[in-house]
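Cont'd.
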Amino acid sequence: MAFELPKVTLTLREAPSRLRTFLGPILAFGIAMLLGGLLVALMGKSPWQALDVYFIHPLLDSYNLQALALKASPLVLMAIGLSYCYRANLWNIGAEGQFVIGGTCAGAIAIFTHGAPDNTLWILPAMLLAGVMGGMVTALIPAILKVSLGVSEILTSLMLVYVSQLTLDYLVRGPWRDPKGFNFPVTVTFDPAATLPPLFDGARVHVGVLLTLAIVIIAAIMQGRSLFNFAVRLLGLAPRAARFAGFSEARITLIVFALSGGLAGLAGFMEVSGQINQLQPSISPGYGFTAIIVAFLGRLSPVGILVAGFVLSLTYIGGEAAQISMQLPLDMTQTFQGLLLFCILSADILTRYDVSLAKART
Amino acid sequence: MPDDFSEPLVRLQAITKRFGSFTANDNVDLELRKGHIHALLGENGAGKSTLVKILYGLLAPTSGTILFAGTPVTMTDPRAARALGIGMVFQHFSLFENLTVAENIALVLPASLSRAALYEQIAAIGERYHLRLEPARMVWSLSAGERQRIEIARCLLQDPQVLVLDEPTSVLTPQEADGLFITLNQLKDEGRALLYISHKLEEVRYLCDHATILRLGRVVETCVPKDHSARELAQLMVGTQIAEVKPQVSQHVGEMRMAVKGLSLAPDQTHGVTLKNIELQAHAGQVLGIAGIAGNGQSELFAALSGERLSGNAQSIFMDGKAVGNRDINARRALGAAFIPEARFGHAAVGDLTLSENVILSQHAHGLVKAGFLRRRAARAQAARIVEDYDVRKTGDDPLARTLSGGNLQKFIFGRENSSKLRLFVIDQPTWGVDARAASTIRRAIVDCAAAGTAVVVISQDLDELFEISDQICVIHEGHLSAAVPASGTNRAEIGLQMTGGMNGV
């Protein structure tokens, strides 16, 4: 042969590099920015202006910073739940649906207690519980199918997203539509008793973000220290070793799905109670799918997820602003998120392997 | 008789290979001649694998030359080695688990071959070289021994001039090994050059014309193995005397620690072996050896004894008189049992976990967890104690398990499971793929363990090992377990015959 392509050789490292574990996502983010900028330039817009609108402007005032926290909260909650699944090598792709059903169940209580005059202190806790349970039950469907029949959890959890979305869609267009709503497909606006109070007077941010923060802290304490986290990790690394250790694969599968579904449902409750204040045909701009990116960008660790949640939240806020000030389509946001996930997964190789280009030898 | 003065077919000259500051091969010379079987002897870590990888084009030497039929060659990859006619049977199998036996073999043959022709070739090679193969089986369902037969057949189908075999007999019965020796002698008479890597010195003395002995990367001796005793060869290999393990002739049979009564269990995966009406008794102070060819129900038996799989019948297994058939592995551990499965990676230990995390793996219920949280410091201390007690060689403070050699990891696992309070110890293949010195340490420890009053059950394919350590021996064949007989009252030939089902119905 006259010529040979240089051979890329991957060598497994003795131990994953700590420095690279940290730098990998940053490098991935940088490359995704470059590619995103290129895309913006191809559309005939200024990548510098896009950079400003997407990533700098939203950080400059309190109003936007609060919006940032509001959007980061559901992403972080769901990503923490998903990180448990992914560590166990279980692929829950359906957080979006679990979020929607959680929000729907929480909303149901708000709608049925609408206008109730008496003691209403129980309503918010009941909504929280309903949201968590709704998400949990939705997530347990694929888990039970996997454990009992060996059905791929990837397909079932993903398809349940559409079932969930259409269920909500049906309810708000049909039985739960606000009779005084001029035929718009929305429910009644929640009573104050069914609304999460703001963090402080006049704040956009509701108290739910404190709960999110508490969950991040608990998850961070558990990680690397609790036997449960160890069992989950073991199942993901080597199922036979997990069995040898005496951990039941079925039980762990059910628990991590219930956990991630519960957290998604909790996020759904916060969204309808603290943000939207009613049910409408769509209550999520794809948070459940973005949470997958958040989980991986955050390296499946709670603190990493907290940071990644803010980064991805920024793309939502920036995306809305870019739509208005630069006429960039909203699809741009999702394209960028996709690019980011792609780059993160590629950068993962660098933490576990040394890459070298072998010279072609004669 | 081939001419000893002819130019060797392969000549490795002054091969040196460094990995960073570590020298794996230091100025090694090796010659392979047509019609000769050449042994490569050495402990794990002596540099055998490195040398073989260089010969097979998997590694490039740091310095030195390889001559093939007198011409210097540079092999950039195994394809180049195969093109020269060098074939390799690896100790660690390179098979696709999700393909059938035939498909794995087809990978090395022309793509145009029809399925019928392929099956015919497999049957022919199996017949000619005594390699029993079932072409339609999926590889993931096969045992180590069966997988090795695929490797050997696959290699022979390429008609190699030079054949390298890495520990080929470690999973064979004496009868099967004898069959393989006939094959190898046949290949030798066909004028091929063979490089034979083994720890079994008697085998090397019987089979090989020449031997090169490596120690710490250097050639310490090139000799005719028949001219030396196995003991002398072992000493050259290790550099020191190897302790021979001799079980004390058992004084009396201790109390019964484990009894298995009429245990039957269907496999949990296709192609697994059904356990049929297993009867077994393990007594305190005794080693019960279970012989058998790989894939006759050993892993299924281990899963049932350990409680990884439950039979659904509480009365099928008793520990100290308690019915434990429905109790899981941790409940049995709580009763004083310990277990070591065959596969080191992914079962007994996890390569991507540190040593201390691997301690937690099986010992989490033994004081390493408090209120649901891991006691990592205690686990590290325990790991350090095991490393110290069992002379485990490692780099770094608490390294990932995959950085340890097979022998060292096995010693670590053994140390993790062993304790003075053990009542029952079930071990599947205690020394498979482990170097001579580590194997000797482990066998010594097994015998000591029984002497201290533990009931030990050892499942092994290595008959030498079983006769070395067992008080009682039985045989597993196609899911049946024979009645145990005193090891002193039987012999290798008899057990070997039972392993192939030869005594069924007699």
